[in-house]
## 1
Amino acid sequence: LFDKHHIFTVPIMHQEFQGIRITPNVYTTLDELDRFCDQMELIARNGLPT
């Protein structure tokens, strides 16, 4: 996500689950949030690109 869209994520590997941490802040624009949501929907439908 960072290389293509400049969205910084942190992987979370836990014994009970795996995920990513996304932390928007007060300076995050609505357009940036929309771009992130669009990418998450694509990944949910198609999986992560290899």
Note: The chain is about 40% helix and 15% strand.
## 2
Amino acid sequence: MNLSDKLDLTGKLIIQKINIQHKTIDECEIKNSITLNGRELVAKLFSSETNQQVKPVNYVAVGKGSKEFVATDNQLADEVYRQPIQEIHLQRIDPDTQEPRVKLILTVDLEADNEKVNDVPLTEAGLFSAESDVSGESDVMYNRVQFPPVNKTKDFKLTLIWEIIF
């Protein structure tokens, strides 16, 4: 009988370009990197030593930075825009197998008419536990993803779908 388990957090970002006819015209998947602060955020859920309430991840930020991922970073290299997460779904994966998992799916749409991201070569995104849509000192960047430039235009919306496996 195996009594051990491991909490191996993994995740990926799915980026979809969706045209004004609501058809997906391009899609890519990128594995994400979890920050040290992001891991600590999850660890605090198990700790009675922290007197503070753990604020969940509630924002997605996108940027145009090219800096390599560093686990101790707590912000994007060059943040352009931040938006509240619009949809959150939780589902069990293979509950009857030897390695059952839970998948958390977070979705944000950057609409076609979003002037803050249009005509910007987006290259990075991150999930944040934050007080507002303005970057702040108390924010926690859970993870960061870098990807080839996506030149957002008014001709399509960009849907960001984060899948995190616990």
Note: Residues 1 and 98 are 11 Å apart (CA to CA).
## 3
Amino acid sequence: MLKETGALISLQPNASKIISSWGLTPFLEPCEPMVDRAFRMFDTDGKLVREINFDFAKFGADRVVYHRQDLHTALKTAATSTKLPGPPVEIRTASSVISCDPDKGTVTLEGDEVVEADMIIGADGIHSVVRQEVVGSPREAIPTGTSAYRMLLPAESLAGLEIPKDVLDLAKPVTTMVVGHDRRVIMGPGRGGKVFGIVALVPDEQMREEAAAASGSWVATGSMSALLEAFAGFPAWMLDLFQRAPEVALWQLRDLDPLPRWVRGRTMLVGDAAHAMLPTQGQGASQAIEDAEALQAFIADLPNRPTKEQINEALLRVYEARHERASLIQGFSREQARPGTSVGSNKITLNPVQFLEYNCNYSGAKDWLAKNDVAAAVGNLNINGS
């Protein structure tokens, strides 16, 4: 939260609806969020081949684009605010977690300080320390074979570029995709049109990034020459856009296979610690927000002084409501990372809204659990012939 990489992030309707229900709109308005109105898909010849206009009214909220740092700051401000229900959150910095005891509800910090609480929520990201303690064995994020260049361009840096208006219009919040076989570019405006974000996905073996390979890091400073080489067959205006970027960052994309458990004792994994996924559907942050809503829903049912057993039972209900859905969306995100065209063809076969209905048609953990409990019961009746 103290420092976040300069990139854009989208909250899908399933998460935007939750955020709104928490009364956070006043905290988010200063972020100058942009409601995304469409996907535009271009082939590698620069031809517009498909435009998908969004109508999210049926989902009860919009797909909204933020700057990551702005969103983090807004959520931190809300969490520490005295204007919302409940006591303000206390945030301790410089407190690296070394280990935890899931059953006792304790964490050990660097320096050997031990902190105890009623429950531990392991929201410590893709590099989670808590994950191994909960699962019982090491479960590291695995390389997916894809890396992402990220760039954020100030609006003023785009002056003079000869780019079709259906590609670049800072006043019109549209997500533009340029799709090749094994690489693609996703881009669009943010911060009320003040910036333009670009993510360029490439196969790992095409990166030509020796510094990253030598250090073993997932993150490196990207090389503009390597980026231009990787996208040499894309439209010239795409390469012109790249060259206006003040800096280029490079991430090796990793995700998790679905974990066998998220809960042990009084401890639960959420977010990337539980279900890290590829960014191909923009669902990573939205799934973490769904986790938070589920925790809110089931913890609210606990008595004032819950026993360890009651806490464990509540966390298991959260897991029951979340694991199947989050695991499916992990799989959908992998599916969306498949090649966008056949080999040697620029005819786009990728459908970016293939799983949109399932992903966005969501009304909270208890609603999901009730519907799926009913579906399971009906299925059992049919199986038994009753």
Note: The chain has a mean pLDDT of 92.
## 4
Amino acid sequence: NGDNMQGGTCSMNTWPNGDWESSGEISLTDVAGENDVVLLFELYEDPAGSSSARVFIDNINVYGVTVDNVDAVLATTNLATYYVVDDVVSTTVDVVNDGDSDMTVDVTLVINDGTSDVVNETITDVAVTIGATETVSFTGWTAVTGNYTYTASVSDPGGDTNLDNNEITGGFEVFDIDPCVYTLPYFEDFETVDTVPSDACWSTAGTEFTGVAGYAAWDIYFGMNRSVFADFWQGAPDDIYMLTTPTFDFSNEGGGTLTFDWQSYGSSHYSGDYFKVKLSTDGGVNYSTVWFVNGDNMQGGTCSSNTWPDGDWETSGEIDLPGVAGVANVKILFEMYEDPAGYSSGRVFIDNINVTGAEVSVDAEVSATNIATSYLVDDVISPTVDVVNNGEAEMTVDVTLVLNDGSSNVVDETVSSVVVASGATETITFTDWNAVEGIYTYTASVSDPGGDVNLSNNELSGTFDVDPNGVHNIGNNLVNIYPNPSEGLFKIDGSSNLSFIVVDVTGQIIILGNLAADTTVELNKPGIYIFRFSNGNAEKVIVK
């Protein structure tokens, strides 16, 4: 209307020889399926004015949209860029009906290892209503190391007007070890990074950016020293910025810490702005905040312009990472938010991310054996060795027992791959051995589980004797018990400052006493008994 009716130009009112305006494409609503559509061109002269121009019309073009348009679209797949060997790849494909009527299609997935198809499956007769999306699931495939290409395609339902969107292709790699799981220490200064995210291991998932077109929520500053930044400068209120690290393996760590540098350019940050660091110990399912600044506290460091972080940097300080000890799937999330009630104008830069683990204490100890100081000939000795884990993580060790008669090893046995939890004691049982007369040494030892901080307690040694008639000199000839075996009466010669107890094979105490000159002990019930003396020695006797 009005001046807007002065479209185009011409040299005189009788000859439209100048340029023309185009109406552009005018959508004709509600005409689909109608057979009595009329168009009216209507012009009106203002009664308060006196217009003097002619209005010319030409090249009227009326056309209809094809009825029963057919368009099957293969929209997306859930295939990732990489997998780890033995992962079960359960592929899904989304098929969209962009046509004007319901359709039935076949959907095919082909995965090729460069030589042959490892997957070639078709799901037939998939019904998709107008405007709908159907997710089609294929049989799970167990990943094998290698490089793969894939093709997902949807058949022509008949008369498809755009066959260019019926197929998606791509590729992925299967690794022996997850390439996105990092051992420690880990350091990232972004000096070799060109984009955010830099690879499949980093992620900006969860970011909601409604800022200026042509700008990204996260980007890399390219300069003498590169860094990553969140673009608050071009963002908008209520935007949220998320940058998630790769996975860190703390399986062999006793704890962990994080440090990083940061700074912000901008006149101010509103009170609702925040910058949080969050920690996940379950692979990114759940997060908890371990570091936090907000509002004016986000104005960290100084720089001369919003594109050049050339001033001083703030440091996060050492941030403790609670609950990471022994955990294999730790992730760290850098999260920022713009106050919906404000309008922040700064960029927030991050650099020199450093994740470190705390050393795990490792200490395997042989704490005890059940080997006595003396035995009788033909006694069956069933040796046991107690191994204690004094470290901070589960350990796997080998335990060895050696019995030597002075000239050779009569027992040399190793029990392998004994698992001992942190703080626990495991009792290892060795093969029975029939006692033979002699004087013996024994050594019980536990292997170094790796990085053992105290190897001096990995071994326990001692001596014992096997006597043919049961008469022993105990403790450097301090005590003699005889006769042995007997019909119940035993004489004990020894130091008068020793005390003793007598127990039966069940451990029940039968007699307590102190040695004196010509001490006699009477045991009336036939069986086997143990004399234990206060000097630590013991002797087995038999009542016939």
Note: Residues 470-477 have pLDDT under 50 and may be disordered.
